[in-house]
């Protein structure tokens, strides 16, 4: 019953097998290998457009490289106030960009609204040297609250950003989970909705350590090979990144993994919602459930060995009432490896908590 | 016949098996897993001292993190003029250290001499604000010329560095190859000879992507966890780094791998040296052979499908005569996976070259 | 009638004369001159403690150097959301600190409250590598709203900051204006209230280009000489910085200049407050007046040639009602050079505006 | 008898007077003032081309801003091994450029030769991600040895640089001294010879603290206003920079100042050369004299109160024999303020030294 994060899961069997298979013989180093070339070819195919793609081992690297490419040091990257890039990467975007500024935009349910974006942009006077200059918008899809931007929402935000001269980055650490929930094509969920650069995650969804950084306008990626090398993210035995990504994409494996994770999350969310005293502030749209639990339920779950994190409840602006003193706010994450039996056991433990 | 680099080889069987084994069940993320803890415990045991250890996926990350910890932005890291950190990491140390300066010291055979180090240090006036301040000495072991510093040489350089207030880093991307050649203990080859921080490589010697950054004074590593995260080098599924390192160290596997690579290099060097017209400027002490080949030999080898790199001959100061116009300077690298048969085939092709 | 800023004023006569006087003969370069030594001696005397002091030409340099010294790259400097360091220096603190993060704390009237500071600190988990680590608190005195922290307020904030391990920086671009309003000693207004490092401004208060960066714990300033040189802020003819600062401090000149500016601001504020329809959201405590003007008054003032800036009204949280559509929010700044006659002319123009 | 540096001199009378004159009334801040506009207009006129110009207070700022604009973080700026930007600015170019690399090219007499430049360029493989990419060539005019590049030499180096895709920067801290020695126009000495960006010094030649950073292709300066502000080099009372530069340029004042300094240097060099035992390794072409003095002469000069610096003799490659044990290598600098009587007194003291 480990719901701490989707990165506590291991590697899916096909991806592990692909690593084993890629191990035969010698291969050209530093990403000039055949599996990497094949992975990038498949990404272009799946996204139905020419891309410049780069495989790296972590999501933080993908995001920070993206933002460093899109923003000059005197620029600003706008993102949700609780965005992973802003709160959970120890300042990686600032480091990679040589000191660009992340500007957090508040918004309920982890989402930036067009109004919020416009208001933040209005606070910047273009060309005024006293202020950093807005250069990029970064959207988290799935959001930090486990919600999903609709295609219309992405398009609306992208339009505002682009009209203001900003490039649009999507932190897609859980892009697969969002995509299968949206039920659209990868192209529709990204560049057709205005996304310029996508951090296309695989690690949280079954890879060992592999993310693709995808530029939909290859011309914008000219500096990336140098930034990647310089930041130590050009793996010498690159074939193993390529092999992971190939297996991830092969036959829709990535979407199957995400569907499994999302389905488990739905079961869990529905079960939790039915427990008296439990409140879910946001709809469960992907593979993360945020819940306000009575402390007695939390105690029963922990006694049963369930693992999950207490989470900071967002600042003012949410429609939900914040947790009271006898409540606790938690995050639960399912993965491709979560079993339905774990859900049942978890819900059983929750239901078995002593009544107030 | 791929002698392009040791990183064109794959993963050793025990390390690959360890990755497979580590895949069962869930594990705590971001390096807080059991295999990582075990790997660090074993490293401390093998190095016979308390350490602060950090696993990362690339040697560039290990080196750059080390130098960023040892040098302030206004500091200088002294290294051999042809050192990997100076020439082959696209400025990673400068990036991680926020602009510290690498100062190259010339020296024959890839080695810094005590005289060379002292002369370079004499060029810096301590406390003079117009100059960066020397903060670290970085030694490559194996060197960029495939040679090995003796323990006495390391100790002599470390003594000069430490007396001048510099910390000593060792770029041990091929530390195992050096160690088995030196025939000493890991402790003797590192901290007992004055090394403060070691980039302990495994990737070139059979791992998939794994290096340990080892601080022999744990107190000096306080900033490392943040620098590592911030640079995107804290892998979420850290157990797979831990598993690689455990298998690498298990039962002396790492030394066996290095012995195999070194032995192949010896065969190759001896065979080459016996070929008329071939010159080896430096002794082959580990798993790299540098050779000046007659162009007709080079052509015959390439025709036979051999892979290796032409290499820049070092600037003035070497005892060997530089390659003439009908010669080519090349680097050949063996790995744990190199087979004796490949060596034989290679030498056969070289010998079969048409006579002048 | 130039109320655009106090830096539109020129240089006070004694300071200009001191520059002229300092021009005779030759002098040691790069801040090793006699006038600089004398200036630092006087600063120590006036602040009644041992200091490490550094003269630079701009307030942005002083602030950014201070924060770069107090925060590591993976640190955070907490400040008011509208603080100059956060909003008006084009990311200088991020640049000088190699990517530290500024974290804005909201608060009415430009002031951070103990509650606001504590709440922000509570959002950081110490030692958690995913987050930057709070390292410094920066207080603007005078604040961005022209208000002044009382000694008790500074002490309360400093206590919270220090208990949490943060150093305390004060952006004192208008420190003199605050000091004469507080009516206390420089020591009381700074280190006795818990301030570790002070940007002691002179430029806005009559100098040509001179600010002192003052460390009250000299041991913390070890890196400053190198950071200053490296950022191009070690003036070669440093005697002219020293001369400015000496003249500024001589015989209480700095306090006289500030008293004059503050007195003009009081006249202006009182006059404005008496004009029907004009609203002053915050008390005028130093030399800045923020006013919500009826647009017809604004038009009359501009027609009369008055210069001042429209200003962004702070986001939610202020007790005052934001400007309506027929109103404009403006900032007016007086300086040592502002004449009472200008105030009278300004108020006359405002009063002469056509009635609604 | 202060020959320590030209920045130990004060401010020329016309420039000081211009500062005084500029002090009347109020002026727009941050470089938007009339004197700055006028200074930039005059620079364009003097250089006979459209420029983007920026006034700053130090040469280090000008140089570092220039190189940060011309080189990406993963770039290299090539310069003479002993160049001020490489040796005497505490890593400012690395800081401003977020970690670009300075690559020193050896060369006798402080000069880069076409052969030296070509050889260094040949060491870089374009597009190879393992290496930083050469982006700029920085030439010091006057050089670090007090010599001057001829127009043909600049043109030859610029041609090689530009053909290789590098921009050309000139560190003209002593541009005026070089120009009057060359006897050509400012345009001929800069953009017509292939220079893209010029650090046009005034401080060492009579200003208080003022340098112009001049882009001959204004389009390349787009990021400069932000970099300047962000580095704290946008002075608020910018009119005083403008006033200095206007007075400096007015009626050829800058060239008169430089001629005076150069003439004194000629007298000094000729006098020294005539003293038995004194050797001058390089011709005195501007206002710096480098001399190898017998120690007894040095002692006599110091006893007479002369001030100058011992200097590091350049590494191998110079035609002159390095100083022996009874000799000392020194640098002597004259300025606009040096008086002929000082030269006579100095030479008298040297001649009066006890004979060996």
Task: Describe the protein's architecture and organization.
Four copies of one chain form a homotetramer. Chain A has 356 residues and is an alpha/beta fold. The first copy, chain A, has two domains: 13-253, 3-Layer(aba) Sandwich (Aspartate Aminotransferase, domain 2), CATH 3.40.640; 254-351, Aspartate Aminotransferase, domain 1 (Alpha-Beta Complex), CATH 3.90.1150. Chain A is built from 13 helices and ten strands. Chain A has helices at 13-22, 34-46, 59-70, 84-87, 92-96, 114-122, 151-163, 175-182, 224-230, 239-249, 253-273, 295-303, 340-351, and strands at residues 52-56, 75-80, 101-105, 133-140, 167-172, 197-201, 211-215, 288-294, 309-310, 327-333. In chain A, the strands form two sheets. A seven-stranded mixed β-sheet of chain A has the order 1-7-6-5-4-2-3, sandwiched between helices. A three-stranded antiparallel β-sheet of chain A has the order 8-10-9. In chain A, β4, α7 and β5 (167-172) form a beta-alpha-beta unit. In chain A, α2 (34-46) packs parallel to α10. Chain A is globular and about 60 Å long. Chains in contact: A-B, A-C, A-D, B-C, B-D, C-D.
């Amino acid at each position: 019953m480990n719901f701490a994060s989707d990165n506590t899961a291991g590697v899916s069997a096909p991806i592990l097998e692909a690593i084993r298979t890629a191990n035969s013989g010698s291969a050209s180093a530093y990403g000039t290998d055949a599996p990497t070339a094949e992975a990038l070819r498949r990404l272009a195919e799946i996204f139905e457009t020419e891309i410049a793609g780069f495989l790296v081992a972590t999501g933080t690297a993908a995001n920070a490289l993206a933002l460093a490419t899109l923003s000059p040091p005197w620029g600003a990257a706008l993102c949700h106030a609780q965005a992973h890039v802003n709160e959970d990467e120890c300042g990686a975007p600032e480091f990679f960009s040589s000191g660009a500024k992340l500007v957090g935009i508040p918004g309920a349910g982890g989402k930036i609204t067009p109004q919020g974006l416009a208001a933040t942009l209005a606070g910047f006077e273009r060309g005024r040297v006293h202020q950093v200059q807005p250069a990029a918008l970064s959207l988290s899809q799935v959001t930090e609250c486990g919600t999903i931007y609709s295609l219309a929402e992405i398009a609306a935000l992208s339009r505002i950003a682009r009209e203001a001269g900003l490039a649009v980055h999507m932190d897609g650490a859980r892009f697969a989970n969002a995509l299968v929930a949206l039920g659209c094509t990868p192209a529709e969920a990204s560049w057709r909705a205005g996304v310029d650069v996508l951090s296309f995650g695989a690690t949280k969804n079954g890879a060992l350590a592999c993310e693709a950084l995808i530029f939909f306008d290859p011309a914008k990626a000219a500096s990336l090979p140098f930034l990647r090398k310089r930041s130590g993210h050009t793996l010498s035995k690159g074939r193993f990144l390529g092999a992971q990504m190939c297996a991830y994409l092969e036959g829709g494996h990535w979407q199957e993994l995400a569907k499994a994770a999302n389905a488990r999350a739905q079961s869990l969310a529905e079960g939790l919602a039915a427990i008296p005293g439990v409140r879910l502030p946001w709809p469960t749209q992907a593979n993360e459930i945020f819940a306000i639990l009575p402390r007695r339920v939390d105690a029963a779950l922990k006694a049963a060995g369930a693992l999950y994190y207490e989470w900071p409840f967002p600042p003012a602006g949410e429609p939900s009432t914040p947790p009271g003193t006898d409540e606790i706010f938690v995050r639960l994450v399912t993965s491709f490896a979560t079993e339905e039996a774990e859900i049942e056991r978890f819900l059983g433990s929750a239901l078995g908590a002593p009544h107030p």
